[in-house]
Amino acid sequence: MKQGIILWMAASAVVMLAFPWLAVTFVKDDAGMAVCFLLFFAVNPLYSVIIGAFAGKDIRHLWSLPVISAALFLIGTWIFFDMGETAFILYAAVYLALGIAAMLISMLIKKKMQK
């Protein structure tokens, strides 16, 4: 189980920290804005749902994965874009809500399958 947690935390670090850094460092001007929109509205929400669905398989041990993912997003955006920007808090809250909702749905599906 610890291997799964470490793997998902490393994936979260890549998606929530490395991807924004790559966008800021290597993509310039209007293409950079398009990449940021793609990250904020497609990649990050999808990743939050996926990590939440995985956490729902063993909610007792993995409940922190959606929280860690949202926190890493906030840290990454504040480091690479604008420190203290409050709009990123809203994004992190939405990603956290998506992750928790996916986690609860996954938990309910797992319980139904066991019965």
Question: Could you describe the 3D structure shown?
Answer:
The chain has 115 residues and is mainly alpha-helical. The protein has five helices and no strands. The protein has helices at residues 2-26, 29-55, 59-62, 64-80, 87-114. α4 (64-80) runs antiparallel to α5 (87-114). The radius of gyration is 15 Å and the shape is elongated.
Task: Give the topology, please.
Blueprint lengths: L1 H25 L2 H27 L3 H4 L1 H17 L6 H28 L1
Helix pairs in contact: 1-2, 1-4, 2-4, 2-5, 4-5
Briefly characterize the structure.
The chain has helices spanning 2-26, 29-55, 59-62, 64-80, 87-114. With 115 residues, it is an all-alpha fold.
Q: List the helices and strands in order.
A: HHHHH
Mean pLDDT: 89
- Give the distance, in angstroms, between the N- and C-terminal Cα atoms: 24 Å
Give the overall form: elongated
Class of secondary structure makeup: mainly alpha
Please count the helical segments.
5
Poorly predicted sequence stretches spanning 5 or more consecutive residues: none
> What is the C-alpha radius of gyration, as a whole number of Å?
15 Å
* Largest sheet features: none
Helical residue percent?
over 70%
Strand content: under 5%
